[in-house]
Amino acid sequence: RETVSYRPYPDAVLRSTRQVEFKRGPYEGTRSLDTKRFRVVGVRNEDADDYHLYVTNLSREEFFPADLAQIYRCRWEVELLFRELKTQYDLDEFDTSNEHVVKILLYAALLSLLVSRDLLDLVTEQADDELVFPPERWAATFRSHAQLILHDLGEHLGYSPPPLLERLIKDA
Predict the structure, then answer these.
(1) Cα separation, 115 vs 119, whole angstroms
(2) Crossing angle, helix 135-144 and helix 99-126, to 10 degrees?
(3) Cβ-contact 11, 43 below 8 angstroms
(4) Cα four-point dihedral sign 158, 141, 111, 114
(5) At how many degrees (to 10) do helices 135-144 and 65-88 cross?
(6) Which one of 5, 26, 61, 84 is at 20 to 30 Å from 127 when CA atoms are compared?
(7) Residue 153 to residue 20: CA distance in whole angstroms
(8) Pair type for strands 2-5 and 12-23
(9) Mean pLDDT of all residues in the chain?
(10) CA distance 65 to 160
(11) Sorted alphabetically, which PANTHER family does this protein's record hold (predicted)?
């Protein structure tokens, strides 16, 4: 069943309600059918001269079209952050089952992400206005230059690592 209403919302063009029937996951060897109602809301995106469609079960009375657009925009940012953490900071696979090591790796990745974003803000501030640095490309750039960044930071803070030959002899 479908109900479509065209109401005069300045930020929405379409509000539709759909009833969807689906099979639930197996439970005790059987799969049951269930029905849920969702609404589809179309919100105008003036920049793209297009509409963004959102499927939700959030109540119409509590969440207006503009609210849904903001919620989904935030959710998409979270998705992009997790994708970056998995691809650039290797959070998709851990070679350990030690809880403490996993926490350390997680904190290291989150701290790296924070430093990366702070440095991106600084680079963006210093760069020409027309230059754009997409976050995923920036993350790859940051990762590939991390050793140099650490070296420069160490020098700036007055840390001088031991000479390379001395380190090689010690580590071998």
Answers:
(1) 6
(2) 110
(3) yes
(4) positive
(5) 20
(6) 84
(7) 56
(8) antiparallel
(9) 86
(10) 56
(11) TRANSPOSASE INSL FOR INSERTION SEQUENCE ELEMENT IS186A-RELATED
Alpha carbons 57 and 105: distance in angstroms, whole number: 36
64-to-39, 83, 136 alpha-carbon distances in Å? 12, 29, 32
Taking residue 39's Cβ as centre, other Cβ atoms within 10 Å add up to 20
Two tokens at 117?
């974003």
The reply to whether the predicted model has a pTM over 0.70 is no
Which residue, chain included where needed, has tokens 């759909």? 18
Tokens of 35: 């029905």
Token output for 158: 């007055």
CA distance 32 to 154: 61
> pLDDT for 114-134, tens place per residue?
999 999 999 999 998 888 899
Q: Give the pLDDT confidence of 135-150 residue by residue, as tens digits.
A: 889 999 999 999 999 8
Report the C-alpha gap between 149 and 154 in whole angstroms.
Answer: 9
Token code pair at residue 135: 């976050």
The residue count for the chain: 172
Q: Tell me the domain boundaries of the chain.
A: 2-85, 89-171
- What CA–CA distances, in Å, run from 137 to 122, 141, 152? 16, 6, 22
